[in-house]
Write a structure and sequence with these properties.
Number of strands: 0
CATH superfamily: Amino acid/polyamine transporter I
Order of helices and strands: HHHHHHHHHHHHHHHHHHHHHHH
Number of helices: 23
Radius of gyration: 22 Å
Distance between the termini: 44 Å
Shape: globular
Structural class: mainly alpha
Largest sheet: none
Oligomer: single chain
CATH class: Mainly Alpha
CATH architecture: Up-down Bundle
Number of domains: 1
Mean pLDDT: 82
CATH topology: Amino acid/polyamine transporter I
Length: 488
């Protein structure tokens, strides 16, 4: 029997797979996402704003050692997605890790997981619309338009697309990902050609000399590399979309393992490979946080229109990320609403089986991002990037803790682990949690933004506690057999 057949049999034999959904929020969805959709959503999650825009500023600050930071963070990101993939095969759910946190950590765990993920994606949405505005300002015809206006237009377009249907979302992400992958591969081929032929880039001969003549691998020391870690974590933030999308595909046991296992080579090729090439082509000091590093390189080699083409592609990547954020938070909030821990209207679905209530709530927070772009256009991206890091680090920690409890219950005979497993449990989970918390602590060394971001943690904690006291009775009633109905 093939591995895919074994996976399918395990899911089919599992009592949770064929009976009443453990998560009431799973009811009502279509199963219109195909294998190619989920696979390309996974690829799209690995190629986004964090690489196309964030890598420029990080190369400027950290130098070539940024490639090592991407590699280390990528390994731990893979562990998180592998753990989530195992939970998906145990029980596919559109509620994803929130649903698993509810089962293994209780309603409080699900509540914290859901709202911290909402914090992550709503602030990431702000980063995305900020990036879109920055990319658009690259063209002179748009420089006179205020950044906040461009951000608002981008938000309106993506919202309209996201509300149509999950099939349209899947198709858009498929083609967005095709464009991103094709462009990155093309750029890497150009970079390799420049290296092999020793074609000058901005008057410099590419190669190791670019690194050794400009301060080496660590031109500013080790601390800047440490400081960019939380930003690198943010670059991988969309990888967990595989778990959410699995709830709307007909063959999760076949689709998810392939998508998860391919993440590691994508990290090595697209992130580490791209950063190494960028470092070999130009010194880190040439790159900037205000411009995509790929645009910088192509503009320097004198190819007419190359920068314009790449800028259009990275703008597409930011639109893709915003689209994915609205998609995932809509599903997560619906799962929470059906359990009583999110506003009732976020459980609403339209005729196309899209949970529009949650999508609109995320969009409302993104409107606040438009205001941020109006007030502090030069700092908007870095501010929300750090806040989003709080959300994604807490989400990943909860995934790993949920997996720890899942494995413990499997050892006690309460549940059955699928053959697709996170290796070396519990060491892998514990090591990953320690690393993620260390990344959080590293933010304290950045007095400009990171330290201020950490000071938000007590405020977020107070908001979560206050919110829990506001919803706990409704959550208790739902758990006692009064499920929250999805409003028509």
């Amino acid at each position: 029997m093939s591995k895919d057949a074994v996976h399918s049999a395990q899911v089919a034999d599992h009592p949770r797979a064929t009976g009443t959904p453990a998560d009431a929020g799973d009811a009502g969805y279509s199963k219109d996402l195909k294998h190619r959709h989920v696979n390309m959503i996974a690829i799209g999650g690995a190629i986004g704003t964090g690489l196309f825009l964030g890598a420029g500023g990080r190369l400027h600050n950290a130098g070539p050692a940024l490639a090592l930071a991407y590699l280390v963070c990528g390994v731990f990101a893979f562990f998180v997605v592998r753990a989530l993939g195992e939970l998906v095969l145990y029980r596919p759910s559109s509620g994803s890790f929130v649903s698993y946190a509810r089962e293994f950590l209780g309603e409080k765990g699900a509540y914290v997981a859901g709202w911290m993920y909402f914090l992550n994606w709503s602030t990431t949405g702000i980063a995305d619309i900020t990036a879109i505005a920055l990319y658009t300002h690259y063209w002179s015809m748009f420089t006179s338009i205020p950044q906040w206006v461009l951000a608002l237009i981008a938000l309106a377009v993506v919202l309209a697309v996201n509300l149509i249907s999950v099939k349209i979302f899947g198709e858009m992400e498929f083609w967005f990902s095709i464009i991103k992958v094709a462009t990155l591969v093309t750029f890497m081929l150009i970079g390799i050609f420049l290296l092999v032929t020793q074609h000058p880039v901005d008057g410099r001969t590419p190669g190791m000399g670019v690194i050794t003549d400009n301060g080496g691998v660590l031109p500013h020391g080790l601390m800047p590399v440490v400081l960019v870690m939380q930003g690198v974590i943010f670059a991988y933030a969309a990888l967990e979309l595989v778990g959410v999308a699995a709830g709307e595909t007909a063959e999760p046991a076949k689709v998810v393992p392939r998508a998860v296992n391919s993440i590691m080579w994508r990290v090595g090729l697209f992130y580490v490979g791209s950063v190494v090439l960028l470092a070999l082509l130009l010194p880190g000091s040439v790159y900037s946080g205000d411009e995509s590093p790929f645009v910088t390189v192509l503009s320097k080699i004198g190819v007419s229109g190359a920068g314009d083409v790449m800028n259009l592609v990275v703008l597409t990547a930011a639109m893709s990320s915003l689209n994915s954020g609205l998609y995932s938070t809509g599903r997560i909030l619906r799962s929470m609403a059906m359990a009583g821990s999110a506003p009732k209207f976020t459980a609403r679905m339209n005729r196309s089986q899209v949970p529009y209530g949650g999508i609109l709530l995320t969009c409302a927070v993104c409107v606040a991002g438009v205001v941020l772009n109006y007030l502090v256009p030069s700092q908007a991206f870095e501010i929300v990037l750090n806040v989003a890091s709080l959300g994604i680090i807490s989400t990943w920690v909860i995934i790993m803790v949920s997996h720890l409890v899942f494995v413990r219950r499997a050892r006690e005979g309460e549940v059955t682990r699928p053959s697709f497993r996170l290796p070396f449990s519990p060491v892998t989970e514990i090591t990953t949690v320690v690393f993620l918390l260390a990344c959080l602590g590293m933010m304290w060394n950045d007095p400009e933004v990171g330290r201020k971001t950490l000071l938000l943690i007590p405020l977020i904690a107070v908001a979560l506690v206050g919110g829990w006291f506001g919803v706990r009775r409704r959550v208790a009633r739902t758990a006692e057999g009064e499920p929250a109905r999805s409003p028509e």
